[in-house]
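User: Quick sanity check before I run a bigger batch. Here is a single chain. Can you write out its predicted 3D structure?
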Amino acid sequence: MNGKMHSETGTFSSDGMRAEILNPFVHKLELENTYEKIRTAIFTVILLPFRVVVILYLIVTAWFLACIGLYGLSEADLRKEPMKGWRRSLKPLICFIGKMSYLAGGMAITIRGRQASRKEAPILVVAPHSSFLDSCIVYATRMSSVIVRKESMDNYVGKLINYTQPVYVWRDDPNSRQNTIKEIIERATSKEDWPQILIFPEGTCTNRSCLITFKPGGFYPGVPVQPVTIRYPNARDTVTWTWEGPGALKLLWLTLTQVHSSCEIEFLPVYYPSEEERRDPKLYARNVRDVMAKALGVPVLDYTYDDCRMIARAKQLGIPSAPAIREVSELRAQLGLERSNLEMHLVAQGLAGKSRWLTRDEFAQRLGVPPNVHLHRLYDIFQQSSNGLVYFPDYLLAAAFLSLQHAPATQLLAKAFKLYDSSGTGRVSMANFEELASRCLGLPQEEAHHVFRQCDLDDKRYVTYDEFIDFAEKKTEFSFLFASDSHHKPKTQ
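Assistant: Done. Predicted structure follows.
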């Protein structure tokens, strides 16, 4: 991508290097002033109930029509052949009602470009994926077939989704990925008049600051695809639903209490793959992503769904700077720290008798790396606003998490006991336990204090790692520590 591209959370320079690494999984939304709070409160009383009633009426109507259209059809029938006759003729009506439900909520959907026919492009590639409200694309594309987890069909909306004749993903099936790709290929290359397949290749929601890695599943058939972009050009972003940010109910509430909001859907020209792209689905996916990023005016970033899971895990454990843990991983790689194993050596030694609060130069010296731009950025992530210094145990715990992210959480906890044990005796005081519990168990101070008291029934005023594990094994609230632990608890090293 040529020239400079900017976003709210980072930048790309002309040579493609990031001046600041984006975090596409964070979205912050707050009512900033008294006027907005008063207006939202008023609309919550006078506008929200009316909109909810109308939307529910329209959704129930669409659901009822879907039930009629699906009457007499089994799941096997839906996967065997495309709908025909009167069943198919109900789709335009359901799509119209679906669009009206968005309009009733104050959201106008604008469509640009022309949707290609199935013959031109059997697959529609949609990005960025940033909200549950992106489901409007199903109505805008005349009920294209979506890819959906089978277990999510056992609910009220399942009938509407089933009416698209979706491609099912079976979470409990170890061959689910291969079977899904196989069905996508069969649908996309079929001579029958199936609906177009609609794919969100990012696989998770982002904040639209960039396009993350596209999963290659929808590109395996090697057929032409039509890229489709979604924008929400609103003054206040009340739709973005990411791993860190407002929940679905809050977003829905704030969206429905806006006077007006917009969604723009643009159909880009059909992308015809080269022979090389047909042979390499990952290359095909990357090239389509580049085209869509250029149309959106945003950079691309090689983040994946696995990165989302890593961030969510870090947040669950309370790891310091969890939202930026992917960036920390990348910076460590650029500094050569992942290969040196120095950090894990420092963790094993412990920090008893050593300075824990470090300046920028001391941080670089302790890690044995030059004070370059990557080191400065790493320091900034962990820098405390209260004193401008880095608390070194916090950084080492984050590094240990990255090194042990596929290991049982108990192994990481053992390292935390090492890092936050200021005495170096293996006996953690209440103050030290509160510190490590907030950073490795996600516990608030008051709860950590209560847990310490329960572990220290003899009033020794300290707790060891093994004592805490013996206690945690009996408590359901700590079951996540042992979820993937197939071995017995590790002893403190």
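The radius of gyration is 26 Å.

User: Great, the batch can go ahead then.
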